[in-house]
Amino acid sequence: MESIQIKNLRCLKDTGEVAISPITVLVGKNSSGKSSFLRSFPLLKQSLIRDADGPFLWTGDENGYVDFGSFEEAVCYGEDMIGFSFVTEIDILQGEEMNYVLQKEISYGSCMEKFKYTVNVKHQAHDYVSEVILDNLLEEHLLKIEYDKLGPTAIIVLNERYPIFESNSNNAKDSYGIPLRRLARNVRAGLFGNKYPDPHLFMDMAQSAASDYLLMREIGMCRFLGFSLDNIFKDAQDLSREDSSYLRMSGILEDILKQSDVEQNKFLSACAGIYYLDLLAYVEVDLKGSIENTQYIAPVRATAERYYRFMNLSVNELDYQGRNLAMYLFKLPETEMQSFQTWTMEHFGFSIFVEGEKGFLSLSVTRKNNTRRVNLSDVGFGYSQILPILVDLWALSKTYRWKTVFVIEQPELHLHPALQGKLVQAFIDMINASNHQFSLVFETHSKTFIEELGRAVYEKRIDTNMVNVIIFEKEDMDNAKITITQYDEDGYLNKWPIGFFEAEF
User: Fold this and answer.
1) Is 411 left (phi over 0), alpha (psi -120 to 50) or beta?
2) How far, in Å, CA of 498 to CA of 483, rounded?
3) Shortest CA distance to 12 belongs to which of 493, 470, 495?
4) Dihedral (CA of 447, 452, 458, 461) sign
5) What share of the chain is helix, strand, coil (3-state, %, to 5)?
6) Bridge partners of residue 370, in order along the sequence
7) d(CA 21, CA 467)
């Protein structure tokens, strides 16, 4: 996931495309929209990993992440749609068998393409997906599927001379109707519970002689890659001399080329539709991985307890409030626990220990140059607040999971400015060591965080283009203004509002 755009979520009428940089910092006064923006990441995750009766799980239970209430409470005042758009880059040749044209024309094994995926949701008796749109960033829409609350009602394929469009009216002259009965035959569930039409419906548009599904898909792919119908036909002819299995392909293409331009474009549109539905699936798989890998730390984190009850449960990741911190650390292999203790001592001057006895666990802390262990509940409150962040940060440094987004609300809570500075440096070290395999998004009210990031840019500890600062300002009660800025080479922020951190009287 390279960027996100949000429409009509609370006061976020339209954020525009916001790049997810290696470090993305959200700043703004209270109730300016930054929490709504940040919490959209755990909202998306809880919607995918839990069974939701609708596209989004607005209200999480005790094991959920965030609570937006309902569609009616989450939608921007006066609007009837909430939309999310994501830009991602995928290799469209990954997992593809080289077809007859690709064998001749492509000498490399990958083809990276950027796509923008949009999902819009409405509410009418219940929440439902109203539109799914797939864009190629260099073109117009590739594919657009429209829905009502009962299911798909229209499918549109653009970027061909004659688009495909189906509706209940007959006023689209340059369009090819697809019977609605075929749209109702769904074969695949979408990312947010919507159903996708049967891709074979596009074969209704093609002549029976050319109704070869795999061939049409390959032609759609080749057209996407920029090959003309003439090129595809010539390559099929060449290959048919070596392999008789290509004779039928070249024969079908020869018949298509004898037809009028209108019929050729009709055929090409059908081929594009078949392939674009597959592209949509590839993009959704990529986004699903990114969203499900999101790690979220809430602003209200669990306070330290003197003892924790041992539970014989599998602990794969830390709870978003750190409630299972003791169990998570207890389950770590000894070598990994020692690695975590060494890491925290080097970066923050303390180590954490976990001990178990008679069905209970306890956490204790040792400081630098002092081997005495002190129960976590007897040391400063800041330790319990920073530990969930450090555990997740360290765990991510051991795995560098694919396209992970680590989202933190107010990491500075209960931390002295000196410890805040160390945390900023830990963030930077993590980003640099991971080769940008994950992104960090956090919301802060801390002047120290802003200044320490600027100092790091000035001292060349991190490149200026690796840090985005998103400034949220309320234009009126129902609309937030978003400004995206970066540090210059001297460590100063461009477009920084005058008096941003000053008190108001």
Assistant:
1) alpha
2) 14
3) 470
4) negative
5) 35, 25, 35
6) 367
7) 6
Name 7's Cβ contacts closer than 8 Å, sequence gap at least 6.
13, 14, 15, 81, 82, 83, 84, 85, 120
Comparing C-alpha atoms, which of 213, 253, 202, 208 is closest to residue 229? 253
Shortest CA distance to 391 belongs to which of 381, 399, 380, 403? 399
Largest CA distance in the chain: 87
User: 24 forms bridges with which residues in the sheet?
Assistant: 441, 468
Give the orientation angle of helix 334-348 with respect to helix 381-399, to 10 degrees: 120
Whole-model pTM: value is 0.89
Both tokens of 438, joined, read: 């994950």
**287: which 2 tokens?**
């986004």
Give me the residues paired with residue 354 across strands: 363
DSSP letters, 122-189, are EEESEEEEEEEEEEETTSSEEEEEEEETTEEEEEEE-SSSS-B---S----TT-B---HHHHT-EEEE
Structure token digits, residue 365: 């802390």
Cβ neighbors of 439 (< 8 A, separation 6 or more) are 20, 21, 22, 23, 24, 404, 405, 406
Q: What is the DSSP string of 451-476?
A: HHHHHHHHTTSS-GGGEEEEEEEEEE
CA dist 171 and 141 (Å) reads 21
Helix or strand (DSSP H, E) at 322: none
Radius of gyration of the chain (CA): 27
According to DSSP, residue 496 is labeled P
Tens digits of pLDDT across the chain (505 residues)? 899 999 999 999 999 999 999 999 999 998 899 999 999 999 999 999 888 888 999 986 666 789 999 999 999 999 999 999 999 998 887 766 545 455 555 555 567 889 999 999 999 889 999 999 999 876 666 788 888 887 777 677 665 444 554 444 344 434 444 444 445 455 678 899 888 877 777 776 665 445 577 778 888 888 787 777 788 788 777 777 776 766 777 787 888 888 887 778 778 878 888 888 888 999 999 999 999 989 999 998 999 999 999 887 777 888 899 999 999 999 999 999 999 999 999 999 999 999 998 889 999 999 988 889 999 999 988 999 999 999 999 988 877 556 789 999 999 999 999 999 999 999 999 898 887 678 999 999 999 999 999 999 999 999 999 999 999 998 888 899 999 999 999 999 998 876 666 655 4
Helix 247-257 and helix 261-292, axial crossing angle in degrees, nearest 10: 120
